[in-house]
């Protein structure tokens, strides 16, 4: 089987001939591909065209040549399927037809291979486009997500703040959010929430909830009133959009005291309970909660209070933690509380880091959105001079 190029003839498959290529001019295939059907030269020395061919007159001594052109379905002649010999031979119409059939088989195989290559290239381009599109969507989602979260944690003297956010899957905007902002004086507002759904609709509700909380907190610092205002906002938005959308959230006011502690007042709207991690190793779950936001108009949200002493920490989280599965079982709030009892530290950064490490044990890790935010009161550090003064006074 040969393929005829512009100036070369390539022997792509051979039997009985150790040739890979020859020039086009001396090759008989260059003439055979111009024929409409099989060609047979029984004795090349007697053929008026072939007798002067170098393959006939030279050492090779070609005498017999029969070929059928390899012609594509759209009429292009690519080469030949041919039989040669050094002695004259005769052919029958049936043998020439067999040669033509072989040439057709070659065309079918070539076109099948070409179609497969085209499909592979097309599939590769599709994958590249999908990956490019996926990367663009992820970048848009990541950028949009960043606009729904505070850019950095504020520095608060005497306290430590830390937060973590994980959105899954990456190509969608998550529905969890958190926020921290000052209320004036020594008061700070902390909020965390989880809106229903994912994507653009969830992002719209997240933005609405976050800024509605901020707006309500300007009018009043009472957590129960802030949550009631947010509930009214979401209920009104549902009526305007004619789309049921809901949210769970916690709004918390932390106020530093002169003694170095922090007074905490919060209201919970159907959200997982905040957990107080005491310096002595004990934990306290703030479980009292009102209904989910947007579920019922005129809902009421009780205000809970607690005091964070030096070395105490307060942890907020979304249900991506408690709904996750660990060792085949739902993790749940009970297992979270038990795991927190063995925590190594209470400060905000260590608590958030502890939760991130915990997520690596989930099945699979990070399957859902997770937002975590923590605040802690710095422990009292007693200097050697202070200790010396105490001992001196004791003496």
Automatic annotation (TrEMBL):
Pfam families documented for this protein: GAF, SpoIIE
Domain PPM-type phosphatase: 161-377
Keyword list, A-Z: Hydrolase
SMART domains cross-referenced by the UniProt entry: PP2C_SIG
Protein name: PPM-type phosphatase domain-containing protein
């Amino acid at each position: 089987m040969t393929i005829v190029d512009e100036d070369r003839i390539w022997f792509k498959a051979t039997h009985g001939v150790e040739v890979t290529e020859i020039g086009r001019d001396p090759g008989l295939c260059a003439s055979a591909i111009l024929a409409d059907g099989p060609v047979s030269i029984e004795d090349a020395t007697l053929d008026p065209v072939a007798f002067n061919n170098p393959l006939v007159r030279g050492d090779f001594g070609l005498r017999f040549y029969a070929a059928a052109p390899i012609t594509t379905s759209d009429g292009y002649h690519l080469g030949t399927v041919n039989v040669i010999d050094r002695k004259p031979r005769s052919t029958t119409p049936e043998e020439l037809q067999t040669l033509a059939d072989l040439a057709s088989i070659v065309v079918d195989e070539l076109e099948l291979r070409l179609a497969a290559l085209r499909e592979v290239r097309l599939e590769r381009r599709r994958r590249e486009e999908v990956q490019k599109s996926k990367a663009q969507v992820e970048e848009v989602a990541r950028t949009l997500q960043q606009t729904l979260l505070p850019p950095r944690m504020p520095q608060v003297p005497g306290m430590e703040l830390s937060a973590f956010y994980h959105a899954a899957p990456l190509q969608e905007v998550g529905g969890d959010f958190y926020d921290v902002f000052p209320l004036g004086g020594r008061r700070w507002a902390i909020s965390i929430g989880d809106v229903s759904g994912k994507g653009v609709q969830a992002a719209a509700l997240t933005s609405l909830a976050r800024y509605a909380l901020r707006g309500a907190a300007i009018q009043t610092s009472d957590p129960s009133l802030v949550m009631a205002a947010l509930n009214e906002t979401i209920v009104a938005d549902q009526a305007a959009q004619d789309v049921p959308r809901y949210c769970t959230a916690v709004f918390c006011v932390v106020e530093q005291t002169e003694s170095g502690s922090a007074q905490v007042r919060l209201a919970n709207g159907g959200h997982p309970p905040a957990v107080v991690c005491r310096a002595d190793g004990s934990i306290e779950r703030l479980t009292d909660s009102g209904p989910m936001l947007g579920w019922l108009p005129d809902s009421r949200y009780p205000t809970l209070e607690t005091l964070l002493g030096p070395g105490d920490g307060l942890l907020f989280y979304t249900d991506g933690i408690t709904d996750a599965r660990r060792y085949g079982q739902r993790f749940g709030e009970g297992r979270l509380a038990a795991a927190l009892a063995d925590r190594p530290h209470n400060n905000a950064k260590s608590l958030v880091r502890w939760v991130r490490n915990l997520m690596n044990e989930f099945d699979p890790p990070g399957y859902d959105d997770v937002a975590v935010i923590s605040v802690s009161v710095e422990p009292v550090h007693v200097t050697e001079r202070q200790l010396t003064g105490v001992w001196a006074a004791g003496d």
